[in-house]
Specification:
The complex is a heterodimer of chains A (332) and B (509). Chain A is 73% helix and 1% strand. With 332 residues, chain A is mainly alpha-helical. Chain A has a single domain, classed as ABC transporter involved in vitamin B12 uptake, BtuC, CATH 1.10.3470. In chain A, strands 1-2 form a two-stranded antiparallel sheet. In chain A, α2 runs antiparallel to α12 and α3 runs antiparallel to α4. Chain A is globular, with a radius of gyration of 20 Å. The two termini of chain A are 22 Å apart. Chain B is built from 18 helices and 22 strands. Chain B folds into 3 domains: 156 residues, P-loop containing nucleotide triphosphate hydrolases (Rossmann fold); 68 residues, no CATH class; 244 residues, P-loop containing nucleotide triphosphate hydrolases (Rossmann fold, 3-Layer(aba) Sandwich), CATH 3.40.50. With 509 residues, chain B is of the alpha/beta class. Classes of the chains: A mainly alpha (332), B alpha/beta (509).
Chain lengths: 332, 509
């Protein structure tokens, strides 16, 4: 009976369109790669491809963290400085205290989870809007990183294996033809795990449900506060992984670094088709979004475009991506 | 296809209007005629095409084919703006005002009078123009009032004023009384009569039969995208109109009150209090009983329900479930005790509309579907969803359909399924059939009766007295936050109204 469909204004194609957006993002990625390979023969060199992937790893991991939060309808502005804070904590544990590598890794991830849990508590229990709560957290962590480190970089020279976290290549060890850095491998692993959590677990289901209609979820008898805190905690621990990646790449924890990374992460999320109003989004889209950004920057650099202009292009891409998303929703 | 030429030239004539949306043939050669100075009710079940037809008239949707004459000349109606210029105004079901602006600013938004060569806004002229429109409506309202602070009824008046400010001669009202109480409805009708006297043609979309008798001159009934017919409102019995809408006759059942004296008490509520909204409310609810809550708008019925459910805090009061004291501070405590609450506002409080049927049904019970490592057992969720789709006869193409695409009645069933799956045996229904069409209403009624027979304890809050009488085994009446009395199932409307308006001496003092 026609009753099953209420108002015919809405089309049944919402899901398809979301996939279309990702397809479009993927097609743009391919297009960029093709254009840059034609423009410069250096672009398709294995070493350059590896460099692009390596450059994506940190922003990619942060963007995955931002994705889960954004799907709940929230935002996390603290991912960048939290990453730095976790790197500094790893530095304290490994370099100042001289503990073995696994403790450093654990400490960084735990610190991330703890800070995420704090942000989540401010938002869920104290009802502070996510934008404000994580803005505050961003500044607190930036300050704490500087205080703890004494505003100086902490080097990991005493922990020889540390650079291997990002720079080494387990894949290359087994398959010498593919010297995929561990950093990239970690990005893929994080993406796969989070994608699995989002699609297959109760946490993931509640993440989407919160972004879709938080009040309905609460009135379903679900402890929304607890799940929201869990989402921010998950995001925080992912930031801890990002902290390890960047510290490993620089072989140091740079306490002044971090601010600005949150915007790149959010940009990747948006380009990947995740809605800032919550309720929909995918990790795959975010990965593509992060790749588009690094391919673009790398390609423009190879073509010797000034860095100032690279930023202008990134900004334009963000606006274009959101505009496409708007067009898609208008059609619904 | 107008039967006989009207003595007055019609304002609007729509002929053979056809409209298709992806997958739905929404209008099939529909026709409609509006005369100046008439209130023309447009009726039909949800999805019958009335809103679509009117949105085409208001320029919101383009039509696929068909002709529309406005004042006897063909009108293109390509945009809301084009419709406005022809004097066609629409007042949407969801009000579209800006709550932080004043009434005058809302009415003249985009057409603000300017001064100083267009540099500055002329607030004085703005307020004067709004005041003039209010005066023409015989409405006393300060144009400088911030709209967000007004009652829904008054906001609606501002909407009407806004529509009139475009010099509208055709005014389309989509369920204007959905959120109004009786006094407010009378105020609205007074204004409609004044507009009518000035020759404005009014299209009145509504589900409420009694309103038709009070206000409408003619009724056009639509069904499945077609115009069934147009009849004169005063001379046509309600049963005829209903059978035109549903294509069959409806029998008006009355509740059969079972003997529940031996049934155990499922829910016991003692001394609930919160400020002026809830004043010392106590009652019992037995297994298998349907307890109706009647009262005027603002009597505190929804407040009591939400407080029992833990959605809002309480100052004092105790709740016993199956004889045991239940500490309910949050909805999750209530759900654990087996209490489910079905809000009147399903879209905001009942469903995650962007998610599918399966996930909505499973939402409160996800822990039951969680296997090793927190992984959801999707196949078990599907089985449960399919099971309830069958049991409750939910009309949906599949359990993966997004709930926003379902009709109101089927959305309500999804919410019911959600609580049944969670093993809730105390169900609180707040306006269970709001926004649900006539045919689906009786289906929901039968479902509630069946649930009671199965031993569920049910509270039904409803503003429609026939609904309370149709369902309740016992009726609790509230007024100004307190329970003014209980009535047996077969009580008369007069008895209920007496209790619903019974202000106690303590309250008056």
């Amino acid at each position: 009976m026609s009753n099953a469909v209420s108002q015919p204004v809405t089309s049944p194609f919402a899901r398809v369109s979301g996939a279309q957006h990702r397809l479009l993002a993927f097609a743009s990625l391919i297009l960029l790669v093709v254009v840059f390979s034609i423009a410069s023969e250096n672009f398709m060199q294995t070493s350059n491809i590896i460099a692009i992937l390596q450059a994506t790893s940190v922003n990619g991991v942060l963007a995955v963290a931002a994705t889960v939060v954004i799907i709940t309808g929230g935002i996390d502005l603290s991912v960048g400085t939290l990453m730095t804070f976790c790197a500094v904590i790893a530095g304290v544990v490994l370099t100042y205290w001289g503990m073995p590598l696994p403790f450093g890794i654990l400490a960084a991830i735990l610190a991330g989870a703890l800070c995420g849990c704090a942000s989540g508590t401010f938002i869920a229990k104290m009802k502070i809007p996510p934008f404000i709560a994580t803005l505050g957290m961003m500044l607190i962590l930036k300050g704490l990183s500087l205080v703890i480190s004494g505003t100086r970089p902490i080097y990991f020279n005493d922990t020889p294996g540390f650079t291997q976290i990002s720079q080494g290549s387990i894949v290359g060890y087994f398959v010498p033809a593919v010297p995929l850095p561990n950093g990239v491998l970690i990005l893929f692993l994080v993406a796969i795990v989070v994608a699995f959590v989002l699609s297959k677990t109760a946490l993931g289901r509640y993440t989407f449900a919160l972004g879709s209609n938080e009040e309905a979820v609460r009135l379903s008898g679900v402890n929304t506060d607890r799940w929201k805190i869990a989402v921010y905690t998950l995001a925080g621990s992912i930031c801890g992984i990002a902290g390890l990646l960047i510290a490993s790449r620089l072989n140091s924890a740079q306490p002044a670094l971090g601010q600005g990374y949150e915007l790149d992460a959010i940009a990747a999320v948006v380009i990947g088709g995740t809605s800032l109003s919550g309720g929909r989004g995918t990790v795959l889209g975010t990965l593509i979004g992060a790749l588009i950004m690094s391919v673009l920057l790398n390609g423009l650099r190879i073509l010797s475009v000034a860095q100032e202009w690279q930023t202008v292009v990134t900004g334009s891409i963000i606006i274009l991506a959101v505009y496409i998303d708007m067009l898609r929703r208008k059609r619904m | 296809m107008t039967a006989a030429p009207s003595p007055v030239a019609p304002l609007v004539t729509m002929t053979d209007v056809d409209k298709r949306f992806p997958g739905v043939h929404a209008l099939k050669r529909a026709h409609f005629e509006l005369l100046p100075g008439e209130v023309h009710a447009l009726m039909g079940e949800n999805g019958a095409g009335k809103s679509t037809l009117m949105k085409i008239l208001a320029g919101i949707y383009p039509r696929d084919s068909g002709t529309i004459l406005v004042d006897g000349t063909t009108a293109a109606l390509t945009s809301p703006r084009a419709a406005q210029e022809l004097g066609i105004g629409i007042i949407h079901q969801e009000l579209s005002l800006m709550p932080d602006l004043t009434a005058a600013q809302n009415i003249l938004i985009g057409r603000e009078p300017r001064r100083a060569g267009g540099l500055l806004l002329d607030e004085a002229a703005l307020n004067q123009r709004a005041a003039d429109i209010f005066a023409s409506m015989h409405l006393t309202l300060d144009p400088r009032t911030v709209v967000g602070g007004l009652t829904i009824a008054r906001q609606q008046m501002v909407e009407i004023a806004k529509a009139l400010s475009y010099r509208s001669r055709v005014l389309i009202m989509d369920e204007p009384t959905a959120a109004l109480n009786d006094a407010e409805i009378s105020e609205l009708f007074a204004i409609i009569r004044k507009l009518k006297a000035e020759g404005v043609g009014i299209v009145y979309i509504s589900h409420k039969m009694d309103e038709l008798k009070r206000i409408a001159d003619r009724v056009t009934v639509m069904r499945d995208g077609e115009t069934v017919g147009t009849v004169a409102a005063p001379d046509t019995p309600v049963e005829t109109i209903i059978s035109m809408m549903v294509g069959r006759k409806l029998t008006d059942d009355v509740a059969v009150v079972p003997d529940l004296s031996a049934a155990p008490v499922a829910l016991e509520v003692r001394g609930l209090r919160r400020g002026k909204e809830i004043r010392d409310v106590s009652f019992d609810l037995r297994k298998g009983e349907i307890l109706g809550f009647a009262g005027l708008m603002g009597a505190g019925r929804t407040e009591v329900a939400r407080a029992i459910f833990g959605a809002d805090p309480l100052e004092a009061g105790e709740v016993f479930v199956h004889g045991k004291k239940a500490t309910i501070r949050r909805p999750q405590d209530a759900v654990r005790a087996g209490i489910g609450y079905l809000s009147e506002d399903r879209k905001h409080f009942g469903l995650a509309t962007g998610m599918d049927v399966r996930n909505n049904i499973a939402l409160p019970s996800l822990s039951r579907f969680t296997g090793f490592g927190g992984v959801l057992r999707e196949s078990a969720m599907r089985t449960a969803a399919v099971d309830f789709i069958g049991k409750l006869a939910i009309k949906t193409p599949s359990e993966r359909q997004e709930t926003r695409l379902l009709s109101g009645g089927n959305q309500q069933k999804v919410v019911i399924a959600k609580w049944l799956l969670r093993d809730c045996d105390i169900l609180i229904f707040d306006e269970p059939t709001r926004g649900i069409d006539v045919g689906a209403k009786s289906e929901i009624y039968r479902l509630l009766n069946r649930l009671a027979e199965q031993g569920k304890a049910i509270i039904v809050i409803s503003s429609e007295l026939p609904e309370v009488l149709r369902l309740s085994h016992r009726i609790a009446v509230m007024c100004e936050g307190r329970l003014t009395g209980f009535l047996p199932g077969g009580a008369s409307q007069e008895e209920i109204m007496k209790l619903a308006t019974q202000r106690s001496a303590a309250v008056a003092a």
